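It is worth pausing here to work through a concrete case rather than discussing structure prediction in the abstract. The textbook approach is simple: state the sequence, then state the predicted structure, then interpret. We follow exactly that order.
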Amino acid sequence: PPSGQQQQQQQQQQQQPLPQGAAQQPPAAGLPPAPQGKSLTAATLAAATPQAQKQLLGERLFPAIAKHQPEQAGKITGMMLEMDNFELLGLLDSETQLLAKVDEALRVLDTAKPMR
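Step two, the predicted structure:
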């Protein structure tokens, strides 16, 4: 098991936001890196811990969202990760559905802005 200091470093790394254009985060512990361009399967997700599932999904969602909304990609990815994992798999397989959810998230963010 990792020492207390190692755990603290891991937590700090996970909390740091990805700079725009940065490489994807390393895969979650205990899982092989997913080959680029290969879709994430339900079986792969089912074999992972809940935290690793969200990590895997986030690693694929972020670049897909960033293609369309680079400034808001981190926030939108975080919002989408609140959804059911298998629904997120469907979004990764359908750019049309993904863009519809991105638009929905943008509307939510727009209505949440404070009035001036």
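Step three, interpretation. The chain is about 60% helix and 0% strand. Confidence is low (pLDDT under 50) at residues 2-37.
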